[in-house]
Amino acid sequence: YILQFYNISSNILPNEIVIPYIENAEILETALDTKVIIPVKGDKKKLLDLVCDNAKTTLEVKKQERLRKISKTTDTIEELGKLLNIPYPKRIELFDNSNISGTSSVSAMVVYVDGMPSNKDYRKYKVKTIEGADDFHTMMEVITRRYKRVLKDNLTKPNLLIVDGGIPQVKAAKNALKEIGIEIYIMGLVKDDKHHTRAIINQELEEITIDKRSNLFLLLEAMQNEVHRFAITFFRKTISKSNVASILDNIKGIGENRRNKLLETFDSIDDIKKASIEKLKSLGLPKDVIENLLNELNK
User: Fold this and answer.
1) CB neighbours of 216 closer than 8 A, spacing ≥ 6?
2) How far is it, in rounded angstroms, from Cα 270 to Cα 116?
3) What pLDDT shows up at residue 75?
4) For 200, phi and psi rounded to 5 degrees?
5) For 186-212, what is each residue's pLDDT tens digit?
6) Residue among 201, 215, 261 nearest 21 (CA)
7) What's the mean per-residue pLDDT of the chain?
8) Which ranges constitute the DSSP H helices of the chain?
9) Contact 143/176 with Cβ under 8 angstroms?
10) pLDDT digits (tens, 9 = 90+) for 57-71
């Protein structure tokens, strides 16, 4: 986008361009032959944060406007049913798990009816029988608990069950439903390495790519973001101070502000361990703190 922007003759190339962290920013600097800055503190960082916040707000407003238009029709949900070769999925239940290095595991369920969230039907689960980072068996436990209750209390059964994840999570849900003896079509929502919605996995474990400009993709992305938000919010409320302290607060150079920044940016300790040095620098962490952080986490 930046290259295209400055290829327009009316847009004068400045002496410096301030951007948030991106991989291989030096390529942009070489291509434009101008200075490219990724600030980590000071006035330029404050200005950059303001620009990013404005961009996110504008994008979210546009997404919500489009979602409101979509919600006025059931065409998008009908399209999903046809794609999966199932009857119109009026009620959809979605599940996502959250933990930090396998501890304090929780799961959450959100419900959509005719493509709209039904907040009164949302449910939270503290994982009881699984220890460690075992997403497969965590998913099995939560799906089992949910649909045993559905059968026991004669609750409304969904027309479609969506799990946040790929083939392993879909298999886990299928195993759980088979053991319970209840039939519900299962689908998975797959993310890319940047945690963005990428594709779906159908019940036959086939990956299906959806046009990212379509209303269906926008709705599925919103659903995946909503269940993830609900799971993360519940997780952050239930995780104890001692759990956080034992992992981040006892690392030299990581105070409350830096800890919170790391938890806001990454979904898990494992994600922090996999992050590039440049990514951690972009959060304002000095080189010595980054080295200390990674050394401690990799123990």
Assistant:
1) 76, 79, 80, 83, 210
2) 33
3) 87
4) -115, 155
5) 999 998 877 788 899 999 999 999 999
6) 261
7) 87
8) 2-7, 25-32, 42-71, 75-84, 135-152, 167-180, 215-238, 241-244, 256-265, 269-274, 277-281, 287-297
9) yes
10) 999 888 888 877 776
Q: What tokens appear for 59 in the block? A: 């994008």
Amino acid at 297: L
| H-run or E-run covering 189 | strand 185-191
Query: How far from the centroid of its chain's Cα atoms is residue 290's Cα?
Result: 24
Q: Beta-carbon neighbour count of residue 156 at 10 Å?
A: 12
Where do we find the tokens 């390495």? 193
For residue 298 the two structure tokens come to: 């990799």
As a whole number of angstroms, the distance between CA 262 and CA 208 comes to: 33
- Work out the angle between the directed axes of helices 75-84 and 215-238 (0-180°, nearest 10): 90
Whole-prediction pTM? 0.65
Q: Read off φ and ψ for residue 20, nearest 5 degrees.
A: -75, 170
Number of Cβ within 10 Å of residue 258's Cβ equals 19
